[in-house]
Amino acid sequence: MPKDASQSAFVEFQRVQKSYDGETLVVKDLNLSMPKGEFLTMLGPSGSGKTTCLMMLAGFETATHGEILLDGNPINNIPPHKRGIGMVFQNYALFPHMTINENLSFPLEVRKIGKSTREEKVKRALDMVEMGAFGGRRPSQLSGGQQQRIALARALVFEPELVLMDEPLGALDKQLREKMQFEITDLAHRLGITVVYVTHDQTEALTMSDRVAVFNDGRIQQLAPPDHLYEEPENSFVAQFIGENNTLEGVVETIDGESCTVRLDGGEVIDAKPVNVSQPGERTKVSIRPERVEFNAERLQKGAHTLKAEVLEFIYMGDIYRTRLRVAGNEDFIVKTRNAPDQRRLQPGEQLEIGWLPSDCRALDA
Amino acid sequence: MTSTSDSSAEQAAASGPMLAADGTPLKKSIARALRMQKLRALALIAPLLIFILVTFIAPIADMLFRSVENQIVSTTLPRTITTLEGWDGSAGEAPGEDVFAALYYDMFVAAEAKEHTKLGTRLNYEQTGISSLFRKSGRKLDDLGKDYQKPFEKAAKDLGDGAAFHALMTGTGPSDSALLESTRARLEALTGDSMAGEIGFAPGAEISALLPLTAAAYADFAVFTARVDGDAPADEDPWEAVYTALAHDLATPGTIEKIASYTGPGAELLQAAADVAPSLPDYRAFFEDVDEDWLDVANWSTIQTYAPNYTSGYFLNAIDMQKTPDGTALRDDDERIYIMLFKRTMFMSLVITFSCILLGYPVAWLLANLPMRTANLLMILVLLPFWTSLLVRTSAWKVMLQQQGVINDVLVWLGLVEDTARLIMINNQLGTIIAMTHILLPFMILPLYSVMQTIPPTYLRAAKSLGATNWTAFWRVYFPQSIPGIGAGSILVFILAIGYYITPEIVGGTTGTFISNRIAYHISSSLNWGLGAALGAILLAAVLLLYWCYDQIVGIDNVKLGG
Ligand SMILES: Nc1ncnc2c1ncn2[C@@H]1O[C@H](COP(=O)(O)OP(=O)(O)O)[C@@H](O)[C@H]1O
Ligand SMILES: [Mg+2]
Predict the structure, then answer these.
(1) Is B251 exposed, middle or buried (0-12, 13-18, 19+ CB in 10 A)?
(2) Which of B293, B325, B18, B269 is nearest to B137 (CA)?
(3) Does residue A262 carry a pLDDT above 70?
(4) Of the candidates B464, B477, B481, which has its C-beta nearest A81's C-beta?
(5) Of B377, B423, B374, which Cα lies nearest the Cα of B401?
(6) Which of A21, A137, A241, B150 is the most exposed place for a label (fewest CB within 10 A)?
(7) Is the pLDDT of residue A79 over 80?
């Protein structure tokens, strides 16, 4: 990483490792650098070390090795309450014995801010999350979504530059979650704060973030903007984890710069874009998104390889059709098509030829 | 639900009670459905309920009743206190002859039933010395009757014969059943046993009108002999009191004239007795002769004051007051003890509760926050005292704290304390506080722990992330949430402490004992159960009052034992 880039970074993890028990590394060699004002999401399956990273940043866990920098300064030895980082916890952690107003003025009180300023800031923060009328209530008297907003307001009321959120929407139902996703991103952009957001919900990660860091096994598998992540996954874990994905296994036959051919285990040969393979003979997993598969011969590119397929199941989902095929021995090959007037509904048992653009078909690690 | 049924339901709600499908009111059908459930639940808890009622509630109720119950005076001396009603002790004069006469006959029956010493003991709580008065008089009562019996027997030998006297008192014609029934009732009250059943005697109405005192005294004798001793009155010689009564009746003006015209069975015996012409018994002189304290106004005032069936005397006593002829008044300085004991009990219980909070809070915190394995080990250490006998633990403290004990030895060895000035830590308040804090500590730790366990650690983290130091985070966020645990533990410890008995008894010496030790003394040594019950009732009331205050201030639903 160039020197000036690390200089301008607001939050930076440098070769950070973490182990709780001295035997296994929960976080292995984490390198991450984010500029001011970015909304970065850590996405990964449960147990992949996301919370641990967040806790190290907040100061509740210490890194076993490596350095964490905030605004260019190492913070390893700064206690949590001096870091000035706002935090939203998964279960909100609103203090149950205090009213909403008291909850919000707590961070201001411990900062010894005068009463009038305090009241003003609390009011502004409550208005910001549209909860101005609820100041006198106790947390238990609020619904989950309302508590969520209060937790957000409390993390923002002392105007931190960095806000951490650990699965803040995990406890909400789907509709509320979507509404809150929008509100949080909107607020973050309006206030210009830097956000590190942890979730295991990929839709949430894709819709909210400037960049997403996909975690697995204590490592960042890929750090990229959402569209890159989806369209250009760098390894088969990311391809599998983000969105729906069809995988065909095989061996690289020829490789030539931007294109390669893969002989599938069933014997068929297809074109693909080499991403994680470098030489013929290597095993590979070929990844194709369900919506990039084409079975209408007219729309197929000239000269593209096609594969034989048999329709196993047709599922009507309203906006799209989801069809399950048997392709090259894989019985879970999914094709998604838009519900349009000219679209054909495939019948189970139907035999057809499918194909795709070689650039949509990525040869990844096995 | 369709809109039509919706609106019909609304109409029903507006016009009257909601109806179930079969047309009965909904409330009723729910009640019916729930009744079986309730009955079944009741049947399940019935054994426990009965157990508690029999072994816990009933004894407590009985004990509380004893603190005001005072029927012993009116059952033992029923006729005395009736005649005493008109007496005014403030004149400084002992009561008149009629009171002493009533006392004589009451005492005679009581002495036969061996109840007079109980009354003496009871009245002795209020007036020291009365007990010996009663005991002494009980032994001498026969003498007065014997003095009359001898001349009667000399005049007619059959006057001393049970069967002849029985025939005389039975007479002919209608019998005085009212006398018999009132006698029965009086003896029932006195002995507490049923007097129903065959007596083998019915006083003749004519003879009862002629010799009222004699008839009454003989009825006492007859009922007692038949129902208590189980003998036939006709087979037994009458009590001496009967001859006293006969003398009294014969000495009453007009009786001798009437006897001359009496023709019933034993008329000649009666005439022979009348010819003896006995003098009127001087009951007052008799009692004065037994013990001149019977003329002491103070003793009679005490009897009069405690004549009612219910008394506040025990309670007054329990708060260092007493009844005097002029109303209630504080006892003399050197007799006051209970108020001081109550205050001491409260104060020391508070100190013990606070030491338990102070020592228990950090332990509970550790229990709730240490990793599972270590916490379990610690928990075993906390529970360890429960596996040792209370007596053993208390005695161990005695060994530890005494002047030649382990702690003093160590302090002397360290040079912190001179060998000649060893600390006194036992047989005083300090000893009680130390030992009881140790014994009650688990009752503080356990509720605290179970409350702390439910406080997620994220609250502390949240507070710190909001800029609070460790201390502020603890004090403003963690501590308030642990208050319900402190409340529960404090109530538990305080209520246990306030009624604690064994430990103060063993390590408390004289300055470190509680009110409960005094209660135990009255229950088992002085046998003044009424006072013990009154002290217990006050203690119970104090606990309930504190509980109520606590509910007002903290709110009892804020008390948690977990969850
Ligand atoms: N306090 C802790 N002590 C020991 N192990 C922990 C602790 N916290 C988390 N871990 C372990 O670290 C790994 C990563 O946990 P975490 O960071 O919470 O994952 P995520 O938030 O991605 O689900 C998990 O295997 C978890 O068991
Ligand atoms: Mg997590």
Answers:
(1) middle
(2) B293
(3) yes
(4) B464
(5) B423
(6) A21
(7) yes
Sign of CA dihedral A25, A29, A34, A39: negative
Q: Do B463 and A79 touch (CB under 8 A)?
A: no
Q: What is the DSSP string of B208-232?
A: HHHSHHHHHHHHHHHHIIIIII---
pLDDT at A44 over 60: yes
Which amino acid, A332? D
Domains of chain A in start order, with CATH, are: 9-236 (3.40.50.300), 244-365 (2.40.50.140)
Question: With 0-12 CB in 10 A as exposed, 13-18 as middle and 19+ as buried, what is A154?
Answer: buried
CB contact under 8 A, B467 and A86: no
Give the ligand 1 atom nearest the CA of A55: 17
Q: Mark the residues whose beta carbon lies below 5 A from ion ligand 2.
A: A 51
CA–CA separation, A286 vs A349, rounded Å?
25
The minimum-distance atom of ligand 1 relative to the CA of A20 is 4
Q: Indicate if the pLDDT at residue B464 is higher than 80.
A: yes
> For chain A, what is the mean pLDDT?
90
Compute the nearest-CA separation of B478 from chain A (Å): 9
d(CA B50, CA B57): 10
Cα–Cα nearest to B381, from B433, B438, B457: B438
Whole-angstrom Cα distance, residue B229 to residue B38? 52
pLDDT for residue A2? 41
CA distance B563 to B455: 10
Residue A101 phi/psi, 5-degree rounding, is -60, -45
Query: Residue B562: its pLDDT value, please?
Result: 55
pLDDT at B111 > cutoff 50:
yes
Let me know: does B479 contact B468? Beta carbons within 8 Å. Answer: no
Q: How far is B6 from chain A (nearest CA, A)?
A: 29
Among candidate residues B315, B341, B313, B337, the one with its CA nearest the CA of residue B327: B313
Chain A residues lying within 8 Å of B463, measured CB to CB: 95, 106
Paired strand residues for B19 = B25
- CA B241, CA B141: separation in Å to the nearest integer? 8
| Ligand 1 contact, A20 CB (< 6 A) | yes
The dihedral built from the CA positions of residue B1, B2, B5 and B10, taken in this order, carries a sign that is: positive
Contacts of B175 (CB under 8 A, 6+ apart): B202, B203, B204, B205
Among candidates A117, A185, A119, A192, which has minimal Cα distance to A152?
Answer: A185
Name the β-bridge partners of A222: A214
Q: Please state whether the predicted TM-score (pTM) of the whole model is above 0.80.
A: no
> What is the 8-class DSSP label of residue B239?
P
Query: How high is the pLDDT of residue A7?
Result: 52
In chain A, which residues have their Cβ closer than 8 Å to the Cβ of B466? 81, 86-87, 106-107, 110, 154-155, 158
* A13, A16, A20, A21, best to mutate for ligand 1 pocket (most atoms within 8 Å of CB): A20
Identify which of A87, A91, A97 has the shortest CB distance to residue B465: A87
Please state, for a pLDDT cut of 90, what percent of chain A lies above it. 64
**CB A200 less than 6 A from any atom of ligand 1:** no
- Residue B529 β-bridge partners: none
Residue B6 pLDDT grade (very low, low, confident, very high; cuts 50, 70, 90): very low
Nearest bound ligand to the CA of residue B372:
1
pLDDT the model gives residue B58? 94
List chain A residues with CB under 8 Å of B472: 110
DSSP E strands: which ranges in B447-536?
none
d(CA B535, CA B498): 12
pLDDT tops 90 at residue A193:
yes
Q: Which long-range contacts link B20-24 to residues 24+ away (Cβ below 8 Å)?
A: none
Q: Is B335 exposed, middle or buried (0-12, 13-18, 19+ CB in 10 A)?
A: exposed
